[in-house]
Request: fold
Amino acid sequence: MTEIGLVGAFLGGLLSLLSPCSALLLPSFFAYAFNGIAGWSPAPRSSTPVFA
Reply:
């Protein structure tokens, strides 16, 4: 049996993340994963309605 090694496994995982099918899921994953970072908040929203 052939040993793939750590570098081969890392490159395979990186290639699978950059494939067109899973690349579309990355923004939603990062939004979910990093939603609760302490000390970080999005820009404040205006309370003025856009359509009045």
Remarks:
- The mean pLDDT is 76.
- The radius of gyration is 20 Å.
